[in-house]
């Protein structure tokens, strides 16, 4: 799945398949300007910062069990969001400090380091990446991903895929080649 925020006409947190299909709103009320998003891939939670409402909140992948982690003026200055183990990590855009926030106790906030400049933060950890033996976009015998001539996008599961074309090309009737 792909998770993303939108604060155009109606602010929301959404999810869809990697090919853009099955778009679903998971948060569409009491939300104004969601600017950063982080996923807990193990427990299937979505965290986001709303800088207008000055809140850091969480829901499960279906939009249930919504909770506020913390609220206050300090949220307005946060950018980027990452989750690892029992903490959320973010950047304070005023002084470029990396903050660690307890995700079960939002009052547990600690500044870890200060940077010269930053707007985003990521945590890379092997165990947060699901191991899949094979998937629909694996290289086909003739070398193309999933048998697609240009782009292969996973669909509703790792066993399903959708072929797409680069700009200026159209998908052929076979659903795999681009012309």
TrEMBL record:
Gene3D superfamilies, A to Z: TolB, C-terminal domain (2.120.10.30)
UniProt cross-references to PROSITE patterns, sorted A to Z? LDLRB
Where is the secretion signal located?
A: none
Q: Which GO terms describe its biological process?
A: canonical Wnt signaling pathway
Pfam families, A to Z: FXa_inhibition, Ldl_recept_b
Against InterPro entries, the record matches this protein to: 6-blade_b-propeller_TolB-like, Cueball_EGF_LRP_Nidogen, LDLR_classB_rpt
- A GO cellular component annotation in the UniProt record: plasma membrane
Instruction: Please tell me the species this chain comes from.
Output: Cisticola juncidis
In the UniProt record, what gene is named as encoding this protein? Lrp1b_1
Q: LDL-receptor class B repeats: which residues?
A: 1-43
Q: What is this protein called?
A: LRP1B protein
List, in alphabetical order, the Gene Ontology terms for molecular function in this entry: Wnt receptor activity; Wnt-protein binding
């Amino acid at each position: 799945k792909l998770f993303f925020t939108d604060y155009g006409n109606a602010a929301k947190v959404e999810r869809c398949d990697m090919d853009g299909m099955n778009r679903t709103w998971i948060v569409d009320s009491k939300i104004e300007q969601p600017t950063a998003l982080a996923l807990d891939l193990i427990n299937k939670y979505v965290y986001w910062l709303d800088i207008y409402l000055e809140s850091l909140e969480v829901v499960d992948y279906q939009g249930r069990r919504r909770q506020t982690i913390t609220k206050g003026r300090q949220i307005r200055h946060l950018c980027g969001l990452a989750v690892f183990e029992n903490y959320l990590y973010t950047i304070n855009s005023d002084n470029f400090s990396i903050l660690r926030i307890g995700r079960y106790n939002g009052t547990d906030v600690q500044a870890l380091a200060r940077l010269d400049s930053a707007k985003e933060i990521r945590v890379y950890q092997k165990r947060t990446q699901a191991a899949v033996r094979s998937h629909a976009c694996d290289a086909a015998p003739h070398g193309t991903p999933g048998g697609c001539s240009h782009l292969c996008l996973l669909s509703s599961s790792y066993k399903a895929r959708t072929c797409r074309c680069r700009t200026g090309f159209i998908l052929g009737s076979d659903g795999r080649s681009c012309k």
